[in-house]
């Protein structure tokens, strides 16, 4: 892991990032997709880049056997402390798991931070190696346009240093962090064009089932999003609406995050 990426995650932001606002929307939508795409419990899940186990714990509570692999020591410690979850340090490009040993692999994070295509392809191939034939690989990626929209909503775009980052991302997907730790900006990362994750999965020998946009335009609602999330009925209506258009190609790029669902033949 690149030093600036490790430093970013050691700040502890993953502990509560998915608990409110756009993070909460990301969590709810992701779990909505997992509920429909994962094999039934008690299937085994390898949660690669599973951070502090925010997804692993509710999956374990639902009866799944969940093992987290993450390169950040504090993440591994926190994930291992969650009920029903096991965890160890590891790298998505060299998974400490046997061939065809799990029913599902989650890549929720690794593809964000592998800036070179060959490294991302290696991560995809490792996921394909360890999942059983017929098993599912679900990978999260950040949209090529996330910095453009999210930076505007969060007022980062007012900083003259931010626009060159956005221009670079729009050009080639690469976002390099230099001396920005602690200001709220995301660290070094690769932001995928919606067409790229399926192509990467196919290159790794997987069959793509579908790709899903998570947040749609709802992440740009600002205070209104907090109001919606505070009301269970409004939240359910929002999730129903997003579910209806989650595969619409013309809307994929506007989501901050995309999920690609693929299976091992």
How would you explain this protein's 3D organization?
There is one protein chain. Strands 3-2-1-4-5-9-8 form a 7-stranded mixed β-sheet, sandwiched between helices. A two-stranded antiparallel ribbon has the order 6-7. It has a single domain (3-263), classed as 3-Layer(aba) Sandwich (Rossmann fold). It is globular. It is an alpha/beta fold. It has helices at 3-10, 21-37, 56-61, 73-80, 117-130, 146-153, 162-172, 196-203, 223-229, 232-244, and strands at 44-48, 65-70, 85-89, 102-107, 131-142, 174-175, 189-190, 207-213, 257-263. Residues 46-138 form the Methyltransferase type domain. Belongs to the methyltransferase superfamily. One of its GO terms (biological process) is methylation.
What is the C-level CATH assignment? Alpha Beta
Annotated CATH architecture: 3-Layer(aba) Sandwich
Structural domains: how many: 1
For the residues shown, what is the average pLDDT? 94
Side-by-side strand order of the widest sheet = 3-2-1-4-5-9-8
Helix content: 25-40%
Radius of gyration: 17 Å
Shape descriptor: globular
Biggest sheet, in brief? 7 strands, mixed
In CATH, the topology is named Rossmann fold
Query: What is the total tally of β strands?
Result: 9
**Range of strand content:** 15-25%
Low-pLDDT runs: none
Reading the helices and strands in chain order gives HHEHEHEEHEHHEEHEHHE
Per DSSP, the total helix count is 10
Q: Determine the structural class based on helices, strands and strand pairing.
A: alpha/beta
Q: Could you give the distance between the termini?
A: 30 Å
Pfam families: Methyltransf_11
Keywords: Methyltransferase, Transferase
GO molecular function, one term: S-adenosylmethionine-dependent methyltransferase activity
Family: Belongs to the methyltransferase superfamily.
């Amino acid at each position: 892991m690149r030093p600036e990426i490790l430093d970013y995650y050691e700040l502890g932001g993953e502990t509560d990032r998915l608990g409110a606002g756009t993070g909460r929307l990301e969590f709810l939508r992701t779990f909505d997709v997992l509920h429909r795409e994962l094999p039934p419990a008690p299937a085994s899940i390898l949660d690669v880049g599973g951070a502090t186990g925010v997804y692993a714990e509710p999956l374990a509570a639902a009866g799944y056997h969940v093992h987290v692999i993450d390169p950040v020591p504090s993440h591994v410690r926190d994930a291992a402390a969650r009920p029903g979850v096991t965890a160890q340090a590891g790298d998505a490009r060299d998974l400490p798991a046997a061939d065809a040993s799990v029913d599902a692999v989650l890549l929720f994070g690794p593809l964000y931070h592998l800036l070179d295509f060959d490294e991302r392809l290696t991560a995809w191939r490792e996921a394909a190696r360890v999942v059983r034939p017929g098993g599912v690989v679900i990978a999260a990626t950040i949209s090529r346009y996330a910095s453009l929209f999210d930076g505007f909503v969060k007022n980062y775009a007012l900083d003259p240093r931010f626009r060159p980052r956005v221009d670079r991302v729009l050009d080639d997907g690469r976002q390099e962090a230099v001396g920005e730790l602690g200001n709220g900006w995301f660290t070094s990362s690769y932001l995928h064009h919606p067409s790229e994750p399926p192509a990467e999965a196919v290159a790794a020998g997987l069959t793509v089932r579908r790709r899903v946009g998570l947040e749609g335009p709802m992440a740009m609602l600002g205070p209104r999003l907090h109001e919606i999330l505070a009301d269970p009925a409004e939240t359910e209506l929002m999730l129903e609406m997003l579910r209806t258009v989650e595969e619409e190609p013309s809307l994929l790029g506007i989501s901050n995050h995309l999920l690609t669902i693929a299976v091992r033949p």
